User: What shape does this take?
Amino acid sequence: MKKYKFLSIVTLALGLTFTSCDNYLDINTNPNYPGTATMSTLLPSVGASTIAQLGLNGDLIGSMWMQYVTQGNSTNQYNTTCLYSLTTANYNAFWTNAYSNTFPDIKIILEQAEEEEAWNYWVIATVMKAYNFHILTDLYGDIPFTQANNSEYPNPEYDDSKTVVYPGILAMLDSAIAKEADAMASSNPSIGGLDFFFGGNMTNWIAFAKTLKLKILMRDFNANQAAITALVEAGGLLTTDCAMVDFEDATNKGNPLYEYNIRQLNTRENMRACHTFLEYLLEYEDPRVAYYYELTYNAQLAIANGAVLPDSIKYEGLPYGDKPNTGEVEIVATSRFKQAYNDPVYLMNKAEIGFMVAEVYARTGNSSKAKEAYDEAVKAAFERFGLDGSSFVAADGAYEFDSSSEEKMMLSIMTQKWVSYAKANSWDGWFDRNRTGIPAISDAETVRESYLPRHRTLTDGYVLGTLVDPADSVLQPGEYPRRLLVPDASSQYNPNAPATKSLVTPMWWQVQ
Assistant: This one.
């Protein structure tokens, strides 16, 4: 497959830390944007700009806030994120990149595709437009939508997320699905490697559109139950990962989080194993621990000298949001988060899809089908690493499905869905936690009684698989981030920008 040099994929993503004074970033007309680009040059750009944000900022937020990792105790790079101390100056790149790069590219693709009747390009661009709007409205709530990227509206209105944006996204997906036959026609131009996710496979794109539709409908399950059930029963959902995998071991051409956290920062100490997730994996002897975390340096030395160690000694973490003094917990005694230049970046993963289907059946009272979908989803999460998870979902297995009530089924499904988002599209884990309340926020202040290595006794009242408040959180006990703040790039230059909401103000689709 041909390799494409991204528009410096990390540069696209790094806008998170900067406050821009270029007011066109929020609105609709970029005076520096080339007007003569073609569909074949813009489609890779759409993929790259989407991945640049989600693969760095999305995975960073998700990995921290779902407590797979925590800030290392010898560095400070992600303190504000870990402690929920965000302002309107943080993570602006989600917004500016979408409105100044991704959506203008998509607009040109759609116009050219309609003119040339290149319906395969049109379907992909429409689905990617829906996906990017879905990410924005899930991050911020009300956003510019109907007037976005329209030069007639230099200061676009913010549309209501529930009544305008979500129905609009669903309409986009329906229009893409309706073009299935046209998108499959042999008269369409070849796409191949220009499509980073499915290599031009339109069957997968239509399936992805249907699955994204399911995900969005489930934001309001009760109101959409009939449509949700019909969609699942009709079949045709995606049965594989939607991911970018074609990275290179070269500057700005690898996985975005790896490029920034490892190659650019020139340290491997920022992201460490977190007690919350690590203790869960160790308790259930989950072999995936070896794919999430590196051995501690001390364990590496012991093994090199012939020692045979259990996982409980090979891996060690830190309490979430707390940074013990390095004199008490040395760097060599904790595990780094395992990263590689070729780590995939997922828009959606196979296990996640299975858990969605399991949830539908659980919430509509079909426990047998819920169990079947749940078992397959858990096994898919193991298969991502070439592992067999069959024993975990077998009778008396560590992750056996509890079908005794809808509440217990949801706890089984959402807990394992939480586990499955690690090193995948972890920002969706944050969305799902806020949608369902699972994992819950523990009343216990810490996971373990002691942060000292190998002192693994759990804090009284702590339940494995629940999150904890960071020790130095800027929020009140039990509070948790529900959204990002509308960024400076909009709030300072668009008079139609709404008043800034609190980080803990729930979205309309989130559990209260």
About this structure: Residues 1-274+477-512 form a domain with the Serine Threonine Protein Phosphatase 5, Tetratricopeptide repeat fold (CATH 1.25.40.390).
